[in-house]
Specification:
single chain; about 0% strand; mainly alpha; about 180 residues; elongated; 6 helices
Length: about 180
Protein backbone atom coordinates (compact mmCIF):
# COMPACT_ATOMS: atom_id res chain seq x y z
CA UNK A 1 0.00 0.00 0.00
CA UNK A 2 2.85 2.37 0.79
CA UNK A 3 4.20 2.04 -2.74
CA UNK A 4 0.83 3.03 -4.23
CA UNK A 5 -0.02 5.99 -2.03
CA UNK A 6 1.93 8.61 -0.19
CA UNK A 7 1.67 9.81 3.37
CA UNK A 8 -1.77 10.25 4.96
CA UNK A 9 -3.04 13.72 4.09
CA UNK A 10 -5.15 14.54 7.13
CA UNK A 11 -6.08 17.98 5.78
CA UNK A 12 -7.48 16.43 2.60
CA UNK A 13 -9.85 14.30 4.69
CA UNK A 14 -11.51 17.58 5.61
CA UNK A 15 -12.28 16.55 9.21
CA UNK A 16 -12.79 19.08 11.96
CA UNK A 17 -9.67 20.52 13.57
CA UNK A 18 -10.38 18.46 16.72
CA UNK A 19 -10.46 15.12 14.82
CA UNK A 20 -7.55 16.05 12.59
CA UNK A 21 -5.35 16.72 15.65
CA UNK A 22 -6.59 13.55 17.33
CA UNK A 23 -5.85 11.38 14.29
CA UNK A 24 -2.43 12.93 13.74
CA UNK A 25 -1.52 12.01 17.32
CA UNK A 26 -3.17 8.57 17.43
CA UNK A 27 -2.58 7.26 13.90
CA UNK A 28 0.61 9.16 13.35
CA UNK A 29 3.03 8.63 10.52
CA UNK A 30 2.01 6.07 7.87
CA UNK A 31 5.52 4.58 7.74
CA UNK A 32 5.36 3.87 11.49
CA UNK A 33 2.03 2.11 10.97
CA UNK A 34 3.46 -0.02 8.16
CA UNK A 35 6.41 -0.98 10.36
CA UNK A 36 4.11 -2.04 13.23
CA UNK A 37 1.92 -3.97 10.81
CA UNK A 38 4.95 -5.70 9.31
CA UNK A 39 6.11 -6.78 12.78
CA UNK A 40 2.68 -8.15 13.67
CA UNK A 41 2.38 -10.04 10.37
CA UNK A 42 5.86 -11.45 10.79
CA UNK A 43 5.06 -12.73 14.29
CA UNK A 44 1.77 -14.25 13.11
CA UNK A 45 3.46 -16.02 10.21
CA UNK A 46 6.30 -17.27 12.40
CA UNK A 47 3.88 -18.44 15.08
CA UNK A 48 1.77 -20.34 12.56
CA UNK A 49 4.88 -21.92 11.08
CA UNK A 50 6.09 -22.85 14.57
CA UNK A 51 2.71 -24.40 15.45
CA UNK A 52 2.80 -26.49 12.30
CA UNK A 53 6.35 -27.69 12.98
CA UNK A 54 5.63 -28.44 16.66
CA UNK A 55 2.61 -30.45 15.59
CA UNK A 56 4.63 -32.30 12.96
CA UNK A 57 7.37 -32.93 15.51
CA UNK A 58 4.90 -34.46 17.96
CA UNK A 59 3.44 -36.68 15.27
CA UNK A 60 6.89 -37.90 14.23
CA UNK A 61 7.68 -38.67 17.89
CA UNK A 62 4.45 -40.69 18.17
CA UNK A 63 5.09 -42.43 14.85
CA UNK A 64 8.53 -43.58 16.03
CA UNK A 65 6.83 -44.80 19.21
CA UNK A 66 4.61 -47.07 17.10
CA UNK A 67 7.52 -48.47 15.06
CA UNK A 68 8.25 -51.41 17.40
CA UNK A 69 4.63 -52.52 17.05
CA UNK A 70 4.79 -52.21 13.27
CA UNK A 71 8.10 -54.09 13.15
CA UNK A 72 6.74 -56.73 15.50
CA UNK A 73 3.68 -57.25 13.32
CA UNK A 74 5.84 -57.44 10.18
CA UNK A 75 8.17 -60.08 11.58
CA UNK A 76 5.66 -61.91 13.79
CA UNK A 77 7.20 -60.79 17.10
CA UNK A 78 4.88 -60.51 20.08
CA UNK A 79 5.74 -56.98 21.21
CA UNK A 80 3.59 -56.99 24.33
CA UNK A 81 5.32 -60.14 25.62
CA UNK A 82 8.85 -59.19 24.51
CA UNK A 83 10.83 -57.57 27.35
CA UNK A 84 13.38 -56.01 24.97
CA UNK A 85 10.75 -54.15 22.96
CA UNK A 86 8.87 -53.09 26.08
CA UNK A 87 12.15 -51.74 27.52
CA UNK A 88 12.84 -49.81 24.28
CA UNK A 89 9.35 -48.32 24.22
CA UNK A 90 9.47 -47.33 27.90
CA UNK A 91 12.98 -45.86 27.54
CA UNK A 92 11.83 -43.91 24.48
CA UNK A 93 8.81 -42.55 26.35
CA UNK A 94 10.79 -41.70 29.51
CA UNK A 95 13.65 -40.00 27.67
CA UNK A 96 11.15 -38.19 25.46
CA UNK A 97 9.38 -36.87 28.55
CA UNK A 98 12.71 -35.64 29.94
CA UNK A 99 13.43 -33.75 26.70
CA UNK A 100 9.85 -32.44 26.66
CA UNK A 101 10.30 -31.21 30.25
CA UNK A 102 13.48 -29.43 29.18
CA UNK A 103 11.62 -27.98 26.20
CA UNK A 104 8.66 -26.54 28.14
CA UNK A 105 10.91 -25.20 30.91
CA UNK A 106 12.94 -23.33 28.29
CA UNK A 107 16.03 -25.47 28.64
CA UNK A 108 16.24 -25.96 32.40
CA UNK A 109 18.39 -29.07 31.96
CA UNK A 110 20.65 -27.28 29.49
CA UNK A 111 21.07 -24.48 32.07
CA UNK A 112 22.62 -26.81 34.65
CA UNK A 113 26.29 -25.76 34.85
CA UNK A 114 27.59 -29.24 35.72
CA UNK A 115 29.40 -30.60 32.64
CA UNK A 116 28.73 -34.19 33.73
CA UNK A 117 24.96 -33.66 33.41
CA UNK A 118 25.45 -31.81 30.12
CA UNK A 119 27.49 -34.68 28.68
CA UNK A 120 24.86 -37.22 29.74
CA UNK A 121 21.95 -35.12 28.49
CA UNK A 122 23.48 -34.07 25.17
CA UNK A 123 23.13 -37.45 23.35
CA UNK A 124 19.51 -37.71 24.52
CA UNK A 125 18.84 -34.14 23.37
CA UNK A 126 20.57 -34.76 20.05
CA UNK A 127 18.66 -38.01 19.42
CA UNK A 128 15.26 -36.45 20.06
CA UNK A 129 16.19 -33.30 18.14
CA UNK A 130 16.88 -35.54 15.16
CA UNK A 131 13.84 -37.78 15.64
CA UNK A 132 11.44 -34.87 16.07
CA UNK A 133 13.01 -32.75 13.32
CA UNK A 134 13.73 -30.04 15.90
CA UNK A 135 16.80 -28.94 13.96
CA UNK A 136 14.44 -27.49 11.33
CA UNK A 137 12.90 -24.94 13.65
CA UNK A 138 15.33 -24.59 16.56
CA UNK A 139 16.40 -21.02 15.59
CA UNK A 140 12.75 -20.00 15.44
CA UNK A 141 12.08 -21.41 18.92
CA UNK A 142 15.11 -19.70 20.44
CA UNK A 143 14.03 -16.46 18.83
CA UNK A 144 10.53 -16.88 20.26
CA UNK A 145 11.66 -17.64 23.80
CA UNK A 146 14.20 -14.84 24.08
CA UNK A 147 11.48 -12.16 23.78
CA UNK A 148 8.86 -11.59 26.51
CA UNK A 149 5.90 -11.13 24.14
CA UNK A 150 6.59 -14.07 21.85
CA UNK A 151 7.52 -16.31 24.81
CA UNK A 152 3.88 -16.05 25.94
CA UNK A 153 2.75 -17.15 22.49
CA UNK A 154 5.18 -20.07 22.64
CA UNK A 155 3.74 -21.22 25.97
CA UNK A 156 0.19 -20.96 24.59
CA UNK A 157 1.11 -23.24 21.71
CA UNK A 158 2.35 -26.17 23.81
CA UNK A 159 -1.01 -27.35 25.24
CA UNK A 160 -2.67 -26.93 21.85
CA UNK A 161 -0.08 -28.94 19.94
CA UNK A 162 0.17 -31.66 22.60
CA UNK A 163 -3.60 -32.07 22.83
CA UNK A 164 -4.15 -32.30 19.09
CA UNK A 165 -1.16 -34.57 18.48
CA UNK A 166 -1.96 -36.89 21.38
CA UNK A 167 -5.54 -37.16 20.20
CA UNK A 168 -4.38 -38.19 16.73
CA UNK A 169 -1.50 -40.29 18.08
CA UNK A 170 -3.63 -42.15 20.64
CA UNK A 171 -6.14 -42.99 17.94
CA UNK A 172 -3.31 -44.37 15.79
CA UNK A 173 -1.85 -46.41 18.67
CA UNK A 174 -5.28 -47.84 19.50
CA UNK A 175 -5.76 -48.80 15.83
CA UNK A 176 -2.34 -50.47 15.69
CA UNK A 177 -2.90 -52.40 18.91
CA UNK A 178 -6.35 -53.47 17.74
CA UNK A 179 -4.94 -54.55 14.38
CA UNK A 180 -2.17 -56.42 16.23
CA UNK A 181 -4.68 -58.32 18.40
CA UNK A 182 -6.97 -59.19 15.44
CA UNK A 183 -4.14 -60.71 13.40
CA UNK A 184 -2.76 -62.84 16.24
Amino acid sequence: MRHVSGEIDYERLNYSHFFTNYLEKKVGDYDDFIERLERICSVIFSYTFLLFLLFLSTLVYLFVLTLPFLIGDRFGIDIVGNIFFIFLVLAYILLGLIVFFDFITLGSIKKVKDNFISKIYFPIYWFFSTVTLNFLYRPLIYNFIDDKYTRKMFFMSIPYVVFVALEIGSSRIILILTFHRIHR
